[in-house]
Prior knowledge:
- The chain is α+β, with helices and mostly antiparallel strands.
- Helix content is 20%, strand content 51%.
- The protein has helices spanning 2-17, 93-96, and strands spanning 20-27, 33-39, 42-48, 52-59, 63-68, 71-76, 80-84, 87-91.
- Strands 4-1-7-8 form a 4-stranded mixed sheet. The chain has a 4-stranded antiparallel sheet with strand order 3-2-5-6, with no helix packed on it.
Amino acid sequence: MKSLFLLLIIVGISAAATAQTHLKVYNDDSTNHTYTVTACGKTSTITLHHNRTGPVTIKGCSNAVISTPTGPLNVKNGDKVYIKDGKPEVVSRLWLKHIDYK
């Protein structure tokens, strides 16, 4: 019983140490966008290239805040971000299932 409890503690610590925010980004604009990201108190920048769809990984916590010209965007691991006309927004997973992207 003690060894099972110890194993669960080790797995929990290692999972917390490797926490990241994985996003799927759909950028329909014809320009690149560079944003400042804050995760776990650490600040970094990300560049989202024009007319591209792809994954973005933010190291740190499973939650992050992206500073955009339209205001802060709170994201969490597994979110999907859609950028249209320079305005990024987090969209629902159900809504994306019905859209046919390029």
